[in-house]
Amino acid sequence: MNFLEHVKMATQTLVAHKMRSSLTMLGIIIGNASVIGMIGVGEGAQEFVSQQVNSFGPNVLFVLPGSPEAQSRPVYPPQTLVLEDATAIAEQVPSVKEVAPSITGSELMSYRGKNSSAALVGATPEYLTVRGFDVARGRFISDLDLKRNEQVVALGSEIAEQLFGNEDPLGKSVRLKDITLQVVGVMRPKGSTLGNNQDMNAFIPVTTMANRIVGKTSPYGIQVTFISVSVEDQSKMPAAQFQIENLLRLRHKITNEDDFTVQSQKELMDRLSKITGALTLLLAATAAISLFVGGIGIMNIMLVSVTERTQEIGLRKAIGASQRDILMQFIIEAVILSAVGGLIGTTVGVSGIFIIGMLTPLEAGISPVAIGLAVSVSGGIGLFFGVFPAKQAAKLDPIVALRSA
């Protein structure tokens, strides 16, 4: 009997028992769909994180207060950066393009009875280009605002809508704590970055933020939350980071442990990619267990099938079928169940990824490698778990099989 006849006979047998075949394939379908779906979600998460980090701006270094060890502790690091550090970086590091020191906080902002919780950002004019923001109407913070400690604010698009609705906010005044701020600009929508809604930001001059809202808390100058540094070219990022670190060590008179941390986008990306990669691997490994369970289900059903088809096996052997013929038929049946289940599972998994992409911020990440691996593994599982039942069937003595029937 040739191979095509084996396939035809195996297919006819499976079609004759539709319900049993469908339930047998269910484990493989769920396993394939889970593996492809989880890997797709993981890749989508990695792409999402990449976009979020890139939204900070091109070729940006972040100078944070506190040592690298302090950054990983679940406490607030000491505030060791001052506005003069940002000025020194801008003046003394040649590879730096622009420097944007920031003071951040959160306060309730109100306008004619409407209140909204604003994410305050004490900023300089350079913040606009370093962090990749755009002004939709009006203007941003100016150098003159910094010199005069002007009480002005540029509102994010969402907080402007919450406070003013359809009313034009330019020239209007909002209340913040015990001061009044004049709205001079409205920003273009930017969306969320790593969970922070940038459209709820309210930008005020960094000097006004320090003198009127948070107060001066350091004898060394105006403390800042962090400093964003734009570098001229990607190739100059390592040199700029090295120069900034040396400059701050001299300014802070450091002889032992740094009281600051300089992070690049690449370092932040690598750290987040490791986290998302580990989660993807964990999800895929968990989903792969379904494939193994599906394989056991195939072996179990095939063993039951051997018992039920004892008379058929005995009859076929009696009329000349060899052990190889019986072995091939049962193996092909197992492989067909796994392959068809794998294809259906692949379709379900890919469809699920597209649905997730439509309903969440994650992009649909279809991995050809994951699809090929899942289908290959499911076919291999069918072959592996189908061998034992097939050998059991091939070893049946035809006379004993006919008598037991």
Automatic annotation (TrEMBL):
<feature type="domain" description="ABC3 transporter permease C-terminal">
    <location>
        <begin position="287"/>
        <end position="398"/>
    </location>
</feature>
<feature type="transmembrane region" description="Helical">
    <location>
        <begin position="326"/>
        <end position="359"/>
    </location>
</feature>
<dbReference type="InterPro" id="IPR003838">
    <property type="entry name" value="ABC3_permease_C"/>
</dbReference>
<feature type="domain" description="MacB-like periplasmic core">
    <location>
        <begin position="21"/>
        <end position="247"/>
    </location>
</feature>
<dbReference type="GO" id="GO:0005886">
    <property type="term" value="C:plasma membrane"/>
</dbReference>
<keyword id="KW-1133">Transmembrane helix</keyword>
<keyword id="KW-0472">Membrane</keyword>
<keyword id="KW-0812">Transmembrane</keyword>
<dbReference type="InterPro" id="IPR050250">
    <property type="entry name" value="Macrolide_Exporter_MacB"/>
</dbReference>
<protein>
    <submittedName>
        <fullName>FtsX-like permease family protein</fullName>
    </submittedName>
</protein>
<dbReference type="Pfam" id="PF02687">
    <property type="entry name" value="FtsX"/>
</dbReference>
<feature type="transmembrane region" description="Helical">
    <location>
        <begin position="281"/>
        <end position="306"/>
    </location>
</feature>
<dbReference type="InterPro" id="IPR025857">
    <property type="entry name" value="MacB_PCD"/>
</dbReference>
<feature type="transmembrane region" description="Helical">
    <location>
        <begin position="21"/>
        <end position="42"/>
    </location>
</feature>
<feature type="transmembrane region" description="Helical">
    <location>
        <begin position="365"/>
        <end position="388"/>
    </location>
</feature>
<dbReference type="Pfam" id="PF12704">
    <property type="entry name" value="MacB_PCD"/>
</dbReference>
<keyword id="KW-1003">Cell membrane</keyword>
<comment type="similarity">
    <text>Belongs to the ABC-4 integral membrane protein family.</text>
</comment>
<dbReference type="GO" id="GO:0022857">
    <property type="term" value="F:transmembrane transporter activity"/>
</dbReference>
